[in-house]
């Protein structure tokens, strides 16, 4: 009888071991969710199980990176689909780098192998306090940048410079938003750090400043015909006040230069350059110049030039707002 009890106890113990540690399907007694973020991985090999556990935890931050990048590109393209402007690329690199720094703090805390199937299991952990400290530091830095830029904007009388400063303040808070989203995941309270400024208010203030800039479009070269209409439409779409009187604050000089490449494989090819230059009327100061390459084809020369004009229209409506803000932001 005694031997029978021993055998039963041993079987029960083995059954408990085979069921695996508590973290496989639920809360870990050692790594509580209040102190750690957890990721789990299962695979036939030990190393793959570790990688899957890290990826399971990291995907929390990868989702916020994708969303934040989309938000920033939306701002820079004024609601259009394609990204424009240098800041979008810079912000993407910063956000991605931030996510990578957080992921580097992930540790493989526990391992287990199922004695029946041979499958390997891994538990990845990330201390909430460690990740939160890094995120809070970045948020505080961006708040300081915004505060300084807004103060500078109040001090300057140069409207275009003020737009550039206000743009950098807005961009800093737009980037801050991504850190806040990650911090709300890491922070067990789910609150993070409330922003001192409303993003919508900063965006509205920037739009109001843009609307105060009196710009007169001026075509200096037009090899296609109709560039005056294209330039005026792009300015209006960008949110600037088109000056039709005699006292513009700025001139937007636009040129479309085309080169006929001739007939190739049944198509008439045309290439060229669309150029914009913003000139401050007082003092004839050039505040910035931007050029875009164009290459199109059509079944005849006239149609090819029309397509070149259409391409110029797309480019300016897509990029002009970000380009002129870039001129303003240039130091």
Q: What does this protein structure show overall?
A:
InterPro entries: LPP20-like_dom (IPR024952). Residues 1-20 form the signal peptide. Keywords: Signal. This protein is of the alpha/beta class. It has two domains: 30-209, no CATH class; 213-329, Double Stranded RNA Binding Domain (2-Layer Sandwich). The chain is built from eight helices and eight strands. It has a five-stranded mixed β-sheet. Strand 7 and strand 8 (285-298) form a beta hairpin. The model is unreliable at 1-17 and 77-88 (pLDDT under 50).
Question: TL;DR?
Answer:
The protein is α/β, with parallel strands linked by helices. Helices cover 53% and strands 23% of the residues.
Strand order of the largest sheet: 5-4-6-7-8
Mean pLDDT: 84
- Structural class, from helix and strand content? alpha/beta
DSSP, total strands: 8
Biggest sheet statistics: 5 strands, mixed
Shape: elongated
Order of helices and strands, N to C? HEHHEEHHHEHEEEEH
How much strand content do the residues show? Answer: 15-25%
SS field, number of helical segments: 8
Supply the number of structural domains.
Answer: 2
Q: Helix proportion of residues, in percent?
A: 40-55%
The value of Rg in angstroms is 29 Å
Low-confidence parts, pLDDT < 50 over ≥5 residues?
A: 1-17, 77-88
* Terminal-residue CA separation: 90 Å
């Amino acid at each position: 009888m005694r031997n029978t009890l021993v055998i039963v106890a041993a079987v029960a113990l083995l059954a408990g071991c085979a069921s695996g540690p508590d973290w496989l399907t639920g809360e870990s007694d050692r790594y509580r969710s209040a102190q750690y973020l957890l990721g789990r991985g299962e695979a036939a090999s030990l190393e793959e199980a570790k990688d899957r556990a890290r990826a399971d935890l990291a995907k929390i931050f990868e989702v916020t990176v994708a969303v934040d990048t989309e938000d920033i590109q939306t701002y820079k393209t004024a609601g259009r689909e394609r990204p424009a402007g240098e800041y979008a690329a810079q912000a993407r690199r910063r956000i991605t780098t931030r996510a990578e720094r957080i992921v580097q703090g992930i540790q493989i805390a526990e391992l287990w192998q199922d004695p029946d199937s041979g499958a390997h299991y891994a538990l990845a952990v990330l201390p909430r306090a460690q990740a939160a400290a890094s995120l809070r530091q970045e948020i505080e830095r961006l708040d300081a940048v915004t505060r300084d830029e807004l103060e500078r904007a109040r001090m300057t009388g140069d409207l275009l410079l003020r737009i550039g400063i206000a743009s950098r303040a807005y961009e800093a808070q737009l980037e801050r938003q991504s850190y806040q989203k990650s911090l709300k995941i890491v922070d067990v309270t789910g609150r993070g750090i409330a922003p001192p400024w409303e993003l919508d208010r900063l965006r509205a203030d920037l739009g109001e400043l843009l609307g105060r800039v009196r710009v007169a479009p001026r075509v200096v070269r037009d090899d296609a015909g109709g560039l005056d209409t294209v330039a005026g439409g792009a300015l209006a779409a960008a949110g600037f006040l088109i000056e039709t009187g005699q006292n513009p604050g700025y001139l937007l000089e636009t040129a479309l230069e085309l080169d006929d490449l001739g007939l190739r494989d049944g198509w008439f090819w045309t290439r060229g350059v669309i150029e914009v230059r913003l000139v401050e009327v007082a003092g004839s100061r050039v505040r910035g110049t931007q050029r875009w390459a164009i290459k199109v084809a059509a079944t005849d020369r006239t149609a090819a030039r029309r397509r070149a004009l259409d391409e110029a229209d797309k480019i300016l409506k897509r990029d002009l707002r970000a380009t002129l803000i870039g001129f303003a932001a240039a130091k």
